[in-house]
Design goal:
mainly alpha; 3 helices; about 0% strand
Length: about 80
């Protein structure tokens, strides 16, 4: 079981050409950004003039980041 966990910690980050810590940083930044964009979208739902293009621009930027990563793993 321990060997499987260690292998899992190494395999996925390696599949996208990153170390564990590089992968953790990328995933952490992405998560925080998604939370912020989600909050902006909720504000936009109530106040349509606020954050008019924030969510769409950010989603497109994130899609490009994921597309440009190395490897074929589930990013």
């Amino acid at each position: 079981m321990i060997a499987y966990l260690i292998k899992s910690f190494r395999d996925h980050p390696a599949s996208v050409g990153e170390s564990y810590f590089e992968h953790a940083a990328f995933a952490g930044r992405t998560g925080v950004l998604l939370i912020a964009v989600g909050l902006a979208a909720l504000v936009h739902a109530v106040l349509p003039f606020a954050f008019e293009r924030t969510a769409s621009r950010t989603i497109l930027r994130l899609a490009a980041r994921f597309h440009n990563r190395t490897g074929t793993g589930d990013n």
